[in-house]
Amino acid sequence: MSSERLIYLPLGGAGEIGMNAYVYGYGKPGKERLIVVDLGVAFPDMDGSPGVDLILPDIAWLKERRDQIEAVFITHAHEDHIGAVAHTYDMLRAPIYARRFTANIAHRKMSEHGHPEDAVSVVGAYPEQIKAGPFSISFLPISHSIPESSAMVIDTPAGRVIHSGDFKIDTTPGVGEAYDADLWAEVCKDGVKALVCDSTNVFSPAPGRSEATVGPEIEKLVSSAEGMVVATTFASNVARVKTLAVAGDKAGRSIVLLGRAMKRMVEAALETGVMKDFPNVISPEEARAVPRENLMLLVTGSQGERRAASAQLARGKYQGIEMREGDMFLFSSKTIPGNERGVIRIINQFSEKGVDVVDDSSGLYHVSGHANRPDLEVLHDVVKPQVLIPMHGEHRHLREHAKLADAKGIKGVLAVNGMMIDLSGNEPKVAEYIETGRTYLDGSVQIGALDGVVRDRIRMALNGHVTVTVIMDTDDEPLGDPWVDMMGLPETGRSHAPLVDVLEEDLRQWLGRSKAATLRDDTKLHDGLKRVVRQSAQDEIGKKPEVTIVVSRLS
Amino acid sequence: MSSERLIYLPLGGAGEIGMNAYVYGYGKPGKERLIVVDLGVAFPDMDGSPGVDLILPDIAWLKERRDQIEAVFITHAHEDHIGAVAHTYDMLRAPIYARRFTANIAHRKMSEHGHPEDAVSVVGAYPEQIKAGPFSISFLPISHSIPESSAMVIDTPAGRVIHSGDFKIDTTPGVGEAYDADLWAEVCKDGVKALVCDSTNVFSPAPGRSEATVGPEIEKLVSSAEGMVVATTFASNVARVKTLAVAGDKAGRSIVLLGRAMKRMVEAALETGVMKDFPNVISPEEARAVPRENLMLLVTGSQGERRAASAQLARGKYQGIEMREGDMFLFSSKTIPGNERGVIRIINQFSEKGVDVVDDSSGLYHVSGHANRPDLEVLHDVVKPQVLIPMHGEHRHLREHAKLADAKGIKGVLAVNGMMIDLSGNEPKVAEYIETGRTYLDGSVQIGALDGVVRDRIRMALNGHVTVTVIMDTDDEPLGDPWVDMMGLPETGRSHAPLVDVLEEDLRQWLGRSKAATLRDDTKLHDGLKRVVRQSAQDEIGKKPEVTIVVSRLS
Fold first, then answer.
1. Residue B324: helix, strand or coil by DSSP?
2. Quick check: helix, strand or coil at residue A121?
3. CA distances from B200 to A270, B13, B370, B372, B439 (A)
4. Contact A91, A119 (CB under 8 A)
5. Which of A273, A330, A519, B140 has the smallest set of CB atoms within 10 Å of its CB?
6. Which residues have C-beta within 8 Å of that of residue A257, sequence separation ≥ 6?
7. Average pLDDT of span B172-190
8. pLDDT at A2
9. Collapsing DSSP states into helix, strand and coil, what is residue A15?
């Protein structure tokens, strides 16, 4: 029996939907050769991460083991799988492999960050194989809501592992490859040690619908529309973008693409040949000369993002185009939980303009890109793994998926971020717990989620901020009166006097009462002044602000 | 033809779901005698109103016309209808009328604020009438998700107006009054000038289901549970709370109420006689001696509120009770848009404890309290108004409801907050636009939503905050070096030197370069220092912070 082991370690994506980053290793404990599958991002929100630009997985563990990393593999070009590739490249410097379309997107990201494009190599589909230390890896096509999504077939001395990537079971996906049951059966026929599997839709009980079902409905809708039609979907859902464009084209409308991502994705799909043709597109400038009933706009911003084309059209003009009464806006998308407010905001703005909004509540104009519960079982049944490790889900999804596997007689393993699983023996076991977390890209700086920076911002948002300035003379006596500046606080409170005046007076009195020992001691002085501000504000306005104390001692 | 007119003016609730406040007036233009229907609140969120405690309608218009106000009527005891009653009492000082259960809740609010309870009078149901100036008003029972919800029958010299309040068409509501079609037909038989009508569920195409349908499903679920069962719903949904308690009781479980609102609502319902009986309740202390499989907890926090009982149980112990593997948590509620993140957070926390969470995705354990589209039509058909004015909705709901009315041959009027409608003539028309808005209750202070206070807080949350202190000597020269304090910003950036040091050095250099004319001029000095901080931070960390400049001049 070898002392080498096969490990699985999620650093992101197992405990949340987003920032996917999974590590596989093989070798002697602590000396494993490593590969990384996906390096994605998650998106910040005002509740938990105000001011943050992107959330990356904390890859400190990988960085410390840079010499052990053989390669990085990207399953597909969604931001939660590819988004951190360029941000982490300096730390890892490992070769990156992806299929043609995914690599096209990765190349763009690398060059935006000034990294060499050739760090990302293009790989063909299964049976083409990449050797990476003890691993042999191939990209096994599977259908999803973006072209060339692939599962990873990871061959190791301890057996074959299948990492599903994001997928659905779709035999008519429009653009991109169909799910090929025979191919999957062939790949899995000699036994699979572990299936590491997408869990997103484990709570959706009905079989998923094919991308092909939305085309006819969208065509019906667009052909019956009278004004301008504007539709939004994820730009990376190239099949959907094409379906929308074709529907517009058939209805005699000229197609306009609005939003950078929309143009980039269509371009990438045509460049790489994953999409063979696309209706003729005109520019926003050309569109101004076209009657509105002959226009169909495809725009970014299906999640109500404030800066995207959809939100700008909802607020007013965008690139010279304005929506009006009688126009139609179609969400060919679903709202990701947490984005409801932004989406509802723009729906109401359109309503104020008299624009008719059609969303997915009918279920006709959108299908999910992830396998529903019965479709997960289709994959379980074809792969027949010894072990199923749910990934790509919050804790509730992982737990439910593990239960589903157990119920089918497959050993389900609930592994969250940081839990290193040893897959070598007959029974998978937890080998180690690794410290993991989130890294915030904040402006141009990467900071730890627990550094306290964002916590302080949230506190200022909740409580407002007060600056107190005191000058102490050379005898350690206050020189003049303390000075208060406020931000984010009401001007007056209970007493109806200006809050600044009340605080300054209370501080002045406290300083007057304080003994020399306090006045000489910076810590005591800071603490005392802070306490006065917070208590005095609590009395006046019912709130304890964040406080910065600046004591300047003349010397 | 009289020169008097009948007006309708929404100050809140027409353009959002929340903070309902509707004004009716009759008299000569500008001299109308006024009544107010509902004074509710809305709830803040981190995106738009961080740190705010409650959102109230801006009632400046009413305050200026205090002498014209005859009375305030509260349709039911939901916070979005009753929540501002005590907060606005000092400004209006008008008599308040409500039915027994609603008044019970209002009395509690008034006494918490130190206002006289007898400002709120109890009124019986239709045909009992209150005379208020030119108006005669009665409370017409209608079913909703709280006891004694009522429509207002408002008789005026210009005809009868029906203000629906919140409602559903439910003939078996459990606790509270059933929808009585005959009574409604009787009330409306002589013609109704206008129906001002709830629009919440206008986008729900299927007929609504009765409260009675959830009981059997909940009983089935609870009787099959093996561990402790904990269920949450809105405490004010007394019928549901009772259904849950009865299900627990039937399954041989002792009932525990957790959360202040839960106890208060059950108490109010029993005190006022709207609920005749309720299963025996034990205290959390007593519960500790009961085997967990014999316990059923009814808890507050169906929307994932951080401080409510549900969230505390998700995090750990609450009042000595802790959930464990094998227990069940039931959401007998739906998640209000915008609250998804909080609800999902606690579901995942329960998942980590091994607690099985049952939510409303099956549709079995919750029904809405609002009339769906076909039920709205039931009311349209019984009331047969000349004019329909949608209320209690965002713009999209109001617009859709007005279109629905128009399609049925009823004149639909889309009136949003601040739009005063003259209902006197044969055709309703906009009489005036009133400035309206939101008032924030922030700690103990009421501030205007546009005062800039909350905007500054949001900016600090997004950008962080820097304080710069400079002392100028009596010759208007800097005394020592400028001093920087930061909050909510990373410690280092591009140069890897401490950000504070970089900013201080850049400020020092700028001060050294500045001419006497700048150094003498407070405005120039402030602007210059601020610009340096923002540019320097942008270079270092890719972010422009909010800045407070404190210049102290020795004299």
1. coil
2. strand
3. 45, 11, 7, 8, 23
4. no
5. A273
6. A263, A266, A281, A297, A298, A299
7. 96
8. 56
9. strand
* Pairwise CA distance, residues B125 & B554, whole Å: 72
Question: How far is B346 from chain A, CA to nearest CA, in Å?
Answer: 10
d(CA A212, CA A221): 15
- Say if residues A209 and A367 touch (Cβ distance below 8 Å): yes
CA-based nearest residue to A378, from A180, A161, A553, A147: A180
* A550 and B CB contact within 8 Å: yes
The arithmetic mean of pLDDT across residues B261-268, rounded, is 95
The first and second tokens of residue A409, run together, are 């007689």
Distance, in Å, from the CA atom of B375 to the CA atom of B382, rounded to the nearest integer, reads 11
Count of beta carbons in the 10 Å neighbourhood of residue A78: 26
- For residues B36-51, give the mean pLDDT: 96
pLDDT category of residue B1 using cuts at 50, 70 and 90: very low
H or E segment to which residue B403 belongs: helix B395-407
In a 3-state reduction of DSSP, which class is residue B365?
coil
Would you call A458 an interface residue with chain B, using a CB distance cutoff of 8 Å? yes
Give the pLDDT band of residue A14 (cuts 50, 70, 90).
very high
Contacts of residue B226, Cβ cutoff 8 Å, sequence gap at least 6: B293, B326
pTM for this entry = 0.95
Mean per-residue pLDDT over chain B, rounded:
96
State whether A458 and B460 contact (CB < 8 Å). no
**Residue A502: predicted pLDDT:** 98
Contact B394 A348 (CB under 8 A): yes
Phi and psi, residue A358, nearest 5°: -115, 125
Using the Cβ of A554 and the Cβ atoms of chain B, whether some distance falls under 8 Å is answered with: yes
Q: How far is CA B299 from CA B3, B149, B324, B336, B402, in A?
A: 55, 23, 16, 17, 38
Query: Measured between CB atoms, which of A340, A347, A462 is closest to B396?
Result: A347
Q: Which candidate in A404, A419, A548 is best for mutational testing of the B interface (most B CBs within 10 A)? A: A548
As a whole number of angstroms, the distance between CA B484 and CA B468 comes to 5
Q: Quick one: pLDDT at residue A1?
A: 46
Rg of chain A taking only CA atoms, in angstroms: 28
A contacts of B443 (beta carbons < 8 Å): 490, 493, 538, 541-543
For the residues B199-221, what does the mean pLDDT come to? 97
Q: How far is residue B373's CA from residue A347's CA, in Å, rounded to a whole number?
A: 19
Interface of A with B in 349-388 (CB under 8 A): 350-352, 354, 357, 361
Tokens of B453: 């206070």
Per-residue DSSP letter, A478: B
Question: Which among B550, B551, B553, B555 is the top mutation candidate for probing chain A, defined by the most A β-carbons within 10 Å of its own β-carbon?
Answer: B550
Question: Could A552 and B483 be called an inter-chain contact, meaning their C-beta atoms sit closer than 8 Å?
Answer: yes
Lookup: tokens for B58: 């801006």
Both tokens of residue A401?
């998926």
DSSP characters over A181-223: HHHHHHHHTT-EEEEEEE-TBTT--SPPPPGGGHHHHHHHHHH
Please return the burial class of A47, using the count of CB atoms within 10 Å of its CB with bins 0-12, 13-18 and 19+.
middle
How do strand A419-422 and strand A429-433 relate by DSSP bridges? antiparallel
Q: What is the CA radius of gyration of chain B?
A: 28
* Environment class of A11 (CB within 10 Å of its CB; exposed 0-12, middle 13-18, buried 19+): buried
* Residues pairing with B466 in the sheet: B486, B547
User: Where do the H-state alpha helices sit in A369-488?
Assistant: 373-383, 395-407, 453-463
Domains, chain A, in order of start with CATH, read 5-206+368-448 (3.60.15.10), 213-362 (3.40.50.10710), 464-553 (3.10.20.580)
Average confidence (pLDDT) over A68-95: 97
Cα A288 to Cα A302: distance, rounded to the nearest angstrom: 24
**Of A183, A197, A176, A242, residue with least CA distance to A215:** A242
Question: Would you give the distance in Å from CA A176 to the centre of its chain?
Answer: 23
